[in-house]
Amino acid sequence: MSSKATQDPKLGLLLLGRYRIVRKLGEGGMGAVYEGQHELIGKRLAIKCLHAQFATNPEIVERFYREAQAATSVGNEHIIEVTDVGTFDDGSPFIVMEFLEGIELAKLIEREASLSISRLVHIVTQVCSALSAAHARGIVHRDMKPENVFLIRRGNDSDFVKVLDFGVSKVRDASDSMGGHALTRTGMAIGTPYYMPPEQAQGVRDLDHRADIYAVGVILYQALTGHLPFDAESYPALLLKIVSERPAPLRVFRNDLPEALESVVLKAMARDRKERFQTVEELAEALQRFAVLQTMPSEAAMRRTGVSAIPQTTPFVTAHDQPASREPSAVLPGPFSGRAWRVPAGLAVLALIGVAVWLGRSTPEAHDSPVQPAVAVAAPQAAVIAPMVKEPAVVRAQAAPEPAEEAAPREVQVKISATPSESRIFIGEQEFPNPMDAFRPRSLDPIKIRVEARGHETVEQLAIFDQNRQLSFSLAPGRGVRKLDASGAVVAAPAVKAPRDPIDDKPAVAAPAPTPAAPPAEDGVYHGPTGKLRDEL
């Protein structure tokens, strides 16, 4: 342990008669995080505290305690657990939380550069579960970003999600005449700027749960492409882009993504919140159809431009940030990303006026979702956001990616066989021989395969031709349709078998329909039973 660490007066302290501070995990501009241990049961804990100089600021203290109140009131398994609060002798507050071992989603994206679609869907749907529980309690997180999504191992799930840092959350209170109680005032924007929706960047007061939906959309965009949708050299320029521009399509950076998935992400990030998914449940449901996609982006499809697109802002500290430590990662959320970046009111006003002027000069056709007039109004107050870290630089989403060196195969080989041998195979509406061996266009969009035979059930299965596929089907005697998903699991009731004769226990055979009498012949020619067949007599 370093000499600086040994001089920390908090090390070894016993808090509330039961929590012993063991070691410092990390420190930021506003506070520090320590590993603690319960004296009686020996349980490892994490203790987050504010520096003493901030303990006299009521707004910072209220924000600090807000995290504990929000996390405790929701009570969802995907939200970090807060177990206790208290104060040091100098009056500075602390929060006792569960000790987590794992990795931030931001670091996972940075380390692996790309995640399979199914893995990302698994992670994000858990985030939606946490936010759904918070929204049901009237709590808006307001600072969702990859750094606030922490992955731990629980049972067989190595990507179990814990959502962190409700320190800037907004709690709607029916007793508040303005419809919501928040730590900020009108004209103030708080949060991490890259993940802010336009209404949050404008500092509007009636911020609601759809701000979190936008932020989750940005997380999806970044995790799938390796790029942020908007980037700028300054806060005013970033604000201008967020409220007035559309993000580049995801397929510009990664052309192997399904168009339907791209549409889901862009809908979550719609500038007009009325055009987004209206609940996180809707977003999670839209993502579920892609849960079976195991596709990893190829190097050509996932070519990065310039340096890493992951912003290196860490609002909390982890054990693995300490070079001398060999302990597992431990993380606690909180407003510890350094000094909060306060933009002078005059600079914020200039930025907002610039947005208004730009919008005024633009044609209506260029903007389907006009920005609300609130953009041009700025109260003489400071705008407070999380720090924008300049090193390393963030890749601009508008920059075109470098040409791919290796093109993904355009076709894949598909082999399908079915029994009985007279089975008919359809891909979409096109029929193929049985057995089938053909090349099909490579695609990540699900397509329906249908196999049918007279006197047998019909089998339908969704398939994804992202690589060479070999499928086989065995149709059971009977009737009905058996539906399978892309993994081959049954998603509908099995086919109904033909009825059996109660006497000899053999399949009942329906009596043939009586053949209608032939119509009168005309000049030695008759039309047959169906009126279509013509035989000369």
Overall description:
The protein has 537 residues and is an alpha+beta fold. The protein folds into three domains: 3-98, Phosphorylase Kinase, domain 1 (2-Layer Sandwich), CATH 3.30.200; 102-385, Transferase(Phosphotransferase) domain 1 (Transferase(Phosphotransferase), domain 1); 411-484, Immunoglobulin-like. The chain is 21% helix and 21% strand. The protein contains ten helices and 23 strands. The protein has helices spanning 3-6, 58-74, 105-112, 117-136, 198-201, 210-225, 235-244, 259-268, 280-288, 345-361, and strands spanning 14-15, 19-27, 31-38, 44-50, 82-87, 93-98, 102-104, 139-140, 149-154, 157-163, 170-171, 341-343, 383-385, 411-419, 424-427, 430-432, 436-441, 447-452, 458-463, 469-474, 481-484, 525-526, 535-536. Strands 1-2-3-4-6-5 form a six-stranded antiparallel sheet, covered by helices on one side. A hairpin with an 8-residue loop joins β22 and β23. α7 runs parallel beside α10 (345-361). It is elongated, with a radius of gyration of 31 Å. Residues 172-189, 303-350, 355-400, 492-496 and 524-537 have low confidence and may be disordered.
